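ok trying this again, last paste got cut off
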Amino acid sequence: MNDRRAFLARATGAAALALLGPRRAFAARAKRASGGDDLDRPLAGDRYVDARQRRLLVDTLSRMRRVQATVGYGNFALLGFDQMRKVARQYHAVEAFTRAEAEFIEGLFYFDAREYGFYGEKVLGGLTDQVEVRHAVVVRGTGQRLLRGMAIERYQEMRRAVGPALVLTSGMRSMSKQIYLFLAKAARVDGNLSRASRSLAPPGYSFHAVGDFDVGQQGLGAANFTAAFARSEVFKRLVATDNLRMRYPRGNYLGVRYEPWHIRVV
């Protein structure tokens, strides 16, 4: 057990990063700094990758990007961790993940996200856990998939209430997809893992793996992933028809920004 903890510390650079405060202290600090909603900015006590890990982050992200280009965007969203590594080994244009890259990903997955200031539930317990591909339903015209059952039924119900102006912007996400998105965000914010976790769940913590999905208003573009969506006609219609179930509402104490577009299913 001590060896395992030592490995995780090395893999994530835990020893080089400042310790975050207790849950309530973080939430209070974050709300003061952001006015309660916008957590997409640096905060005191944030955890960063060190210089060596920053290089690993960039290299790992680049390799994952090549895997996505090889298998296609839609397929990558369902690709498990082991499958991703297999694809990398098979294609010369990608090449196998190095041991350091694989350990970097493993360290990120098994590290306690509360150390970043993220207090959501861990949905997938193992790095090699896969989404339920056999239950995936392609949503026509979106390039996205939803889980058969509650997820697709919830989406169809929302479409009936609001109409075609409501669009599906993000559906099922595999472990590989969530790792990719989290690393891409971390890379954009100078290796700030805490800041990344405030807008993208760390690997293993995303409910997109088990049913949740994102919606937006047709024509709104990237603004669908900002508080601007809450001012849209689609959002107002969802509220008026009692069809809004948010995973991350205002004032949540999960260490996550306000996400009016993220629909809770599970």
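PB: full thing came through this time. DSSP finds ten helices and six strands in the chain.
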